[in-house]
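Our platform keeps sequence and structure together, in a single record for each protein. Such a record has a labelled line for the sequence and another for the backbone structure tokens. The tokens are whole numbers drawn from a learned vocabulary of local backbone shapes. The remainder of this section carries one protein's record, kept here as part of the documentation:
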Amino acid sequence: MRQPNETTDRNALALAGLRITVGSLFIIFGQYKVFGTQFTLHGGFEFWINLFLQSGAAYPIAVPLLRRLVLPHATLIAFLVAYGELAIGTALVFGILVRTASVFGLILMLSLLLSSNYPSSGYPGGRQLWQYFGASLNHSVLALCFLCFIIGRSDERLSLRRLVAKFKWKWDVS
């Protein structure tokens, strides 16, 4: 029979593993944008926003925002996205400011969901509820991960915050 602490520890370890994996993905997403110039300075971000608008991938509620706010400030927002993804990833991998990073990650995923995951009108027989969920899997799954990191204690294990607290406690006791 398992002890309650063993189950809690396994869950904390699993959540920390998920946090580190999602963080690693965001470091990958952010690093090529930060260290390359195609996304930020050479129209990569603007290209994608225009593609979302032209293909009908943006939810109708997001279209005016994309046209009137995002496109006129595309370079600035591209830099915010690039450095934001890198910061989110770094915070998650190291287990520091996890909840704060997760709030920003959730906002980013919801923004991307509304900007790029509207099921096209090409579905025969109109849109069904499952089509909205199916079209959004690439962003909604990560959004749910961020929600778990906000609610849970994913920084309990394998985190710099926990390591520093442990060494600080040992230093204070001595």
